[in-house]
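SAMPLE LOG
Freezer: B-3
Tube label: C17
Construct: single chain, 194 aa
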Amino acid sequence: MTPRSTAPFHDLTGQLLIAMPDLGDPRFQGSVVFLCAHSPDGAMGLIVNKPMQDVRFRDMLDQLGIARAAATPDVQVCYGGPVQMRRGFILHSAAYAGSRKDRLEVDDRYAMSATLDILTEIARGTGPVHNILALGYAGWGPGQLEEEIAHNSWLTAEALPEVVFAPSMHDKWAAALASLGISPLTLSSQAGHA
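STRUCTURE (predicted):
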């Protein structure tokens, strides 16, 4: 059993995790993770920059029996993380006044929903304008995320909406680093080596 850290707990709910180049887990290489919940008991987040090439929103709606409309947007489906890959989550702006059922208010800017109601609203064109649909999530047990951060696997940054909801998934990692004043070119997987 791993002992819990004695360092003071710092809540990162509503923040971004930015994967460092030497992060050993290939599932998280180049990832930007939005932390939906973080407590001494663990953390849960959604990867917001890994589009799934083989899953289309329209096909998901058809499989779920949700009618599409002329206003149905073309929503990019993300790989949200390796846990519960068959479960969908919508990260959206907290200002969206739609369905409150099974909604987690992350902070005053973000909320997460995991119901068919919000998918139906998005399909009708009445859902949240700013949203990310993710299949699966990233999870950490007690102290695990803190240990990974201490081992320099992740940087943390403010979750700026212009980064989180940016239309280009592939640019989010560099944009998240830029929000910290860091260029991807200055990061090295071999720290301290020229």
